[in-house]
């Protein structure tokens, strides 16, 4: 987005009627009626002060605004506010080339009834059209017009006055019959005067202005024709002089003057009565400061009337003592090239100096020049510029410089021709090639050459010749070596080669300056090894690299690092051996499910202590407790879970011979009919592994109902009461 900048150029004076010369030290500015004021200090206090600056208006809306500024002097007094209208244009994208597609017209500010007209897209548009103003009244109107581009942006409206004439019948020739006069806009007291009907009328008449006061007035005049239409009013200023009561010629008797609008200290002077006064007098300005001032003067006649005041600027110079002065230095330059002045001392310093010198113009082309001089005195003051004309005759001088760009196999040299007064050139590059170009570019293939330039002014026949030894520096290739050991293959640093055998190779790279870098590579190539092994393990296997742990049989890959620092790839045919630790229980007998195995039953309540002699597949405990089996298969051993045995020594059924259990098998709900009332009955339900599933007690009952919670399988229900015991096996399915 383009930054919105307002450019302001204001020349400011501040004059407050004080005697001293005031200087502007700062200014303040703001936009529209915004109370936010920005203060800026002047870079250098001055009188007058030129404000030439750019202001950021990006925060303002598109449209009409006012820029307000006031200045403050070194007495902290402010000037009146200066205001200026400006219009902020809408932001248009950089590089856009908008075209006009539409325009809009309205009359007398009536934008609501504006009419729009589309046009073919164009960069410029000449609006030449008959506009319909039939609905407008006769008289003065305004027409307003604006254009819209293809970006949707409207231009600033343009307005112009026009006068709609009354409708006159074709062939009529209206004549003036009345005119009307009024003064100072007082139309209510206008006077009307009839005249003989006429196509033209010369108003030559003495007008009565006796009722007007002395001073400046306006007279307005309009005419009416025989159709009843009035013309446009015409107005003009005039000045009514005071009545003197006599016709005698007046004479000046007094004049009065004052400085810098300080009328309170005006000086009144009388003169001998005269009709003409030449004021030739030294006026005392010793009380005024050095700098710019105004003097205002007026005259009074013998009738007591004062003239209009006349004012004029003047500058009071600083007072300087007259002392002897001498010139110590001078400078000169040609034409407007004052940034290339030549300075020279005047030794010894003198009051008058006769410049007798040959000026060096060899750097200038032939032709006419203006030469300017200034002289400096002992006080460091330079004189005004003195100018004279001088002609430089043709004097060809061959001169050149050069710039070079180095490459690996060549150097490109561009020559800058600084010769003067030549219109023909000839270059000899010292390598058998030449050129007639003014500033050639040449490619050198060798290091040092003598380059010659011959120039000539074909008009005068004068010529010049110069030779320079051009030292050329070529970019150089570099060399390096590299020792490296790799496995199997090696890609060269350039990426152009792949090597698989040990050997010394050459590779070409590009160095930092763009030339070849020859690299010698001493290469050793070691080979990656492969090996197959067979392994077996109990439960899991940790790979030789210690990177992997496998728990299933299969074929696996593992990578080791050999003594040559290359990979050694192992293929491992792995067997993972497992142990079946399953146990079944029937009544108080525990049976291991593993086959082709050895067994050792242990006492879980005694730290898994092996039970002597219990090495069979089945185990019938001699007492209640927790028991497990250590199973060994394929040289792997694993301990089973512990199983609870709690009914050793309990009779199978001493409670009743007619106990009914139903349903059995069951889905979970079991009813036990004891066939008699039992006291202090305790019931335990265990799973096939001997784990207690549930238990409860009944004080006195003949029938019990219970829910077997757990998975499908065999469960043991133990009944203990005062009347006896019973063990019941139930299948849950």
Please tell me the CATH architecture of the largest domain by its name: Sandwich
| Overall CATH class of the largest domain | Mainly Beta
Q: Give the CA-based shape.
A: elongated
If you average the pLDDT, what whole number results? Answer: 84
Number of strands: 52
Report the major sheet. Answer: 5 strands, antiparallel
Portion in strands? over 45%
Share of helical residues: under 10%
* CATH fold-level label of the largest domain: Immunoglobulin-like
Number of domains: 10
Rg (C-alpha, Å):
62 Å
Set out the fold topology:
Blueprint (H helix, E strand, L loop, with lengths): L4 E8 L11 E8 L6 E9 L2 E8 L6 E11 L8 E7 L11 E8 L7 E8 L16 E11 L8 E7 L11 E8 L7 E8 L16 E11 L8 E7 L11 E8 L7 E8 L16 E11 L8 E7 L10 E8 L7 E9 L16 E11 L8 E7 L7 E7 L4 E7 L6 E5 L5 E2 L5 E4 L3 E9 L6 E9 L6 E10 L2 E2 L6 E2 L3 E8 L5 E11 L2 E10 L2 E2 L6 E2 L3 E8 L5 E11 L5 E4 L2 E4 L5 E6 L5 E2 L7 E2 L5 E9 L2 E4 L3 E3 L14 E3 L6 E19 L4 E16 L5 E9 L2 E9 L1
Parallel strand pairs: 30-34, 35-39
Antiparallel strand pairs: 1-4, 2-3, 2-5, 5-6, 7-8, 7-9, 9-10, 11-12, 11-13, 13-14, 15-16, 15-17, 17-18, 19-20, 19-21, 21-22, 23-24, 24-27, 25-26, 25-28, 28-29, 31-32, 33-34, 36-37, 38-39, 40-41, 41-44, 42-43, 42-45, 45-46, 45-47, 48-49, 49-50, 49-51, 51-52
């Amino acid at each position: 987005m383009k930054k919105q900048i307002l450019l302001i150029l204001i020349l400011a004076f501040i004059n407050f009627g004080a005697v001293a010369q005031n200087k502007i030290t700062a200014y303040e500015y703001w936009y529209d009626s915004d109370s936010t004021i920005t203060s800026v200090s002047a870079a250098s206090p001055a009188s007058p002060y030129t404000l030439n600056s750019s202001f950021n208006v990006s925060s303002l809306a598109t449209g009409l605004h006012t820029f307000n500024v006031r200045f403050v002097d070194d007495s902290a007094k402010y000037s009146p506010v200066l205001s200026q209208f400006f219009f902020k244009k809408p932001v248009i994208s950089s590089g856009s080339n908008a075209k006009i597609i539409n325009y809009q017209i309205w009359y007398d500010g009536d934008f609501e009834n504006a009419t729009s007209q589309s046009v073919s897209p164009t960069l410029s548009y000449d609006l030449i059209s008959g506009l319909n103003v039939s609905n407008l009244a006769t008289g003065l109107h305004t027409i307003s017009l604006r254009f819209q581009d293809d970006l949707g942006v409207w231009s600033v409206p343009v307005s112009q006055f026009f006068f709609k004439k009354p409708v006159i019948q074709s062939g009529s020739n209206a004549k003036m019959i009345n005119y009307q006069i009024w003064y100072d806009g007082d139309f209510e007291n206008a006077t009307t005067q009839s005249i003989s009907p006429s196509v033209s009328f010369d108003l030559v008449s003495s007008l009565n202005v006796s009722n007007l006061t002395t001073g400046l007035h306006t007279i307005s005049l309009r005419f009416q024709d025989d159709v009843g239409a009035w013309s446009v009013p015409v107005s003009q200023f005039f000045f009514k002089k005071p009545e003197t009561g006599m016709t005698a010629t007046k004479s000046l008797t007094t004049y009065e003057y004052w400085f810098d609008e300080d009328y309170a200290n005006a000086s009144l002077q009388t003169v001998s009565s005269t009709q003409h006064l030449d004021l030739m007098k030294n006026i005392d300005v010793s009380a005024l400061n050095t700098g710019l001032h105004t003097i205002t003067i007026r005259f009074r006649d013998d009738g007591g009337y004062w003239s209009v005041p006349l004012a004029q600027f003047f500058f009071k110079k600083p007072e300087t003592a007259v002392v002897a002065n001498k010139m110590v230095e001078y400078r000169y330059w040609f034409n407007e090239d004052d940034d290339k002045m030549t300075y020279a001392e005047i030794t010894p310093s003198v009051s008058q100096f006769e410049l007798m010198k040959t000026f060096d113009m060899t750097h200038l082309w032939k032709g006419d020049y203006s030469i300017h001089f200034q002289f400096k005195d002992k006080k460091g003051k330079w004189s005004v510029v003195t100018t004279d004309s001088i002609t430089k005759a043709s004097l060809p001088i061959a001169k050149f410089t050069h710039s070079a760009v180095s490459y690996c196999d060549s150097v490109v040299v561009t020559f800058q021709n600084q010769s003067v007064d030549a219109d023909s050139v000839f270059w000899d590059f010292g390598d058998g090639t030449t050129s007639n170009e003014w500033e050639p570019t040449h490619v050198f293939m060798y290091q040092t050459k003598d380059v010659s330039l011959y120039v000539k002014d074909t008009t005068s026949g004068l010529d010049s010749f110069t030779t320079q030894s051009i030292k050329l520096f070529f970019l150089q290739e570099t060399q390096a070596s590299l020792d490296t050991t790799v496995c199997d293959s090696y890609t060269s640093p350039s990426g152009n080669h792949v090597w698989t055998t040990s050997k010394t190779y050459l590779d070409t790279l590009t160095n930092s300056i763009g030339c070849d870098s020859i690299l010698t590579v001493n290469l050793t190539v070691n080979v990656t090894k492969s090996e197959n092994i067979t392994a077996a393990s109990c439960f899991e296997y940790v790979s030789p690299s210690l990177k992997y742990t496998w728990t299933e049989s299969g074929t696996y890959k593992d990578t080791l690092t050999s003594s040559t620092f290359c990979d050694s790839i192992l293929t491992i045919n792995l067997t993972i051996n497992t142990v079946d630790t399953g146990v079944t229980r029937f009544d108080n007998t525990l049976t291991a499910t593993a086959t082709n195995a050895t067994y050792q039953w242990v006492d879980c309540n005694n730290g898994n202590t092996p039970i002597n002699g219990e090495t069979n597949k089945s185990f019938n405990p001699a007492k209640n407790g927790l028991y497990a089996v250590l199973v060994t298969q394929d040289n792997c051993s694993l301990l089973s879970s512990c199983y609870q045995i709690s009914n050793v020594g309990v009779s199978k059924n001493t409670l009743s011979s007619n106990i009914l259990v139903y349903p059995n098998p069951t889905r979970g709900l079991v009813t036990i009919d004891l066939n008699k009332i039992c006291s202090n009955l305790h019931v335990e339900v265990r799973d096939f592994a001997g784990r207690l599933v549930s238990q409860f007690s009944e004080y006195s009952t003949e029938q019990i109902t219970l829910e077997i919670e757990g998975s499908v399988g065999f469960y043991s229900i133990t009944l203990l009461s005062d009347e006896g015991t019973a063990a019941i096996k139930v299948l849950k399915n």
